Amino acid sequence: MSVVLEFNDGWFVDHLVSINKDFEKTDSVCRTDRNFPDNEVNKIERQGCRNENKLASDERRTLKYECNPNLFAIWQPFMMDSQFDKTMERQNSESSCTLGNKRENKKKRKRRHSPSLEEVVVFEEHKRICCKLTAALNQLKKLTFSREYDSAASVFDNNLAARQAASVYGCGDVFVRRCQETLGEYDDISQPVRLDELSSDEAICNRLIENPCEISIRRTLMGHDFLISPQSRFLISDLSSLEPLLIDHTLYDCVVIDPPWENKSVKRKKKYNMLSERDLLNLPIRHLCSQNALVLFWVTNKQRQQKFVTEQLFPAWNIRYLTKWYWLKVTKTLQPVCKLDSDELTKRPYECLLLGCKSSQSNSIALNIPHEQVIISVPCSIHSRKPPLNEILQKYLVPEAKCLELFARSLLPNWTSWGNEVLALQHIDFFKQCAEQLQESRETCL
Question: Can you say whether residue 428 is alpha, beta or left, with left for phi > 0 and alpha for psi between -120 and 50 degrees?
Fold first, then answer.
């Protein structure tokens, strides 16, 4: 269960458990072709196996994979490298100084301008949210039974292991580039293509792909190895190629949207392509939602973005705004990843999730959705990876609800995922084979 604890104000979620649950059983083809890049399984088989005939006769196996736990090894609050270096220098300096000759470094005070009315309103709202999140976190700490969350990190290294794990390249931007190319038209895009019917070098962009199996599958696609979640569907495309989703004629009971908002920092560093408000208004949400659909929209803490969604975007889609939930990001010791009550408007340890439902008289979802809940979890060290919502939402949706995630970068069982990086976090580089099975592989091959 990814929901470790449910309490009055929300849920405490273990993202790592949620990921690992999907890959306890994985249909894996163990390749021995030396043209493929080495991976952990291949290295063991090539180095330790003396009976090549035996290996060839047992190429297909059911394996267990686990996500790299270091991706969630967030033990200390976030710091910029420069801030961390200064902190360490100050600590070293203080430890080497005696009380008599210790000198205080006086910082120049920044001149503060008088806040505008809008800034005052934003800050007052932030204080209100802080009170709510603090109360939820204190409630969780009283109920937490695991000693892990009460222990302190043994090494103060600015979450080095987590940052190193997040630096893995994976498949890079291979699918982003391929989506922008002209891939030609397929004979039939009205039906999903089964994953087991695709060859390893076959183009998969702009086609709806599905894994109908009850277990996950490890497959080579466009030169990279991926773990595909059980009973999942995905479409790799950009905004200009949403036809496979629309032609499929599936109406979804739940739609989660996590768009790449326009951002000055991202624009300056050119990290990824961003979407304008006009692009978001053109999303065909009306044609994807069922009569009683629940729509969840991730936004930043900018009031302007939140107003745009609630006052323009939702009405344009015939969606009625219900409430706002919060995702509070904490360390493994249950401390906010940055100062919760900071006056700085740019740094917040929480993100907002706006909830709305299809405007129809028969929609009963509005009555069941709780107001201003808090999702607490240790965040992934990979930028902007959101916590899993499938288990939380299950109790508020119809049985066997059809669910869709837009701008996804990973897959969920029984969900359809769309985006130009939809397989990015499914890459084998972010996983490892279960240690027990690796030992069995060694013993079998000797």
Answer: alpha
Q: What's the pTM?
A: 0.84
CA 365 to chain CA centroid, nearest Å: 25
- Report residue 384: phi and psi, to 5°: 65, 20
Written as six digits, the tokens of 435 are: 């240690």
DSSP string for residues in 101-159? T--PPPPPPPP-PPPPHHHHHHHHHHHHHHHHHHHHHHHHHHH---GGGGSPPS--SSS
Q: What is the dihedral of CA 142, 147, 148, 153, to 10 degrees?
A: 100
Looking at residue 330, the DSSP 8-state letter turns out to be B
Angle at 442 between CA 437 and CA 446, to 5 degrees: 145
Residues in the chain: 446
Report the pLDDT value the prediction gives residue 183, as an integer from 0 to 100: 52
Contact 206, 179 (CB under 8 A): yes
In order, the DSSP letters of 252-294 are EEEEEE---B--HHHHHHT-S--B-HHHHHTS-GGGTEEEEEE
- Identify the weakest region by mean pLDDT among 119-128, 292-301, 360-369: 360-369
Tokens of 420: 């130009």
CA-based end-to-end distance of the chain: 37
Q: What is the strand order of the sheet 10-13 is part of? A: 3-7, 10-13, 374-377, 319-329, 350-358, 289-299, 252-257, 403-406, 415-419, 232-236, 208-211, 193-194
99-128 as b/e: b if 16+ CB within 10 A: eeeeeeeeeeeeeeeeeeeeeeebeeebee
Helix/strand/coil percent split, the chain, to 5: 35, 25, 45
- Specify the pairing of strand 65-67 against strand 431-433: antiparallel
Q: Which two tokens stand for residue 361?
A: 């008289």
> Cα-flanking dihedrals φ and ψ of residue 279, to 5°?
-60, -40
Residue-wise pLDDT for 411-428, tens only, equals 999 999 999 999 999 999
Average pLDDT, the chain: 82
Beta strand 415-419 with 10-13 is unpaired
Tell whether the model's pLDDT for residue 153 goes beyond 60: no
* pLDDT tens-digit readout, 192-236: 899 988 887 788 888 999 999 999 999 999 889 999 999 999 999
Q: Is 10 helix (H, G, I), strand (E, B) or coil?
A: strand
DSSP letter for 389, please: -
The residues near 253 (Cβ < 8 Å, ≥ 6 apart) are 290, 292, 293, 294, 397, 398, 401, 402, 403
Helix (H) or strand (E) holding 96: helix 81-96
Separation between Cα atoms, residue 410 and residue 423, nearest integer Å: 5
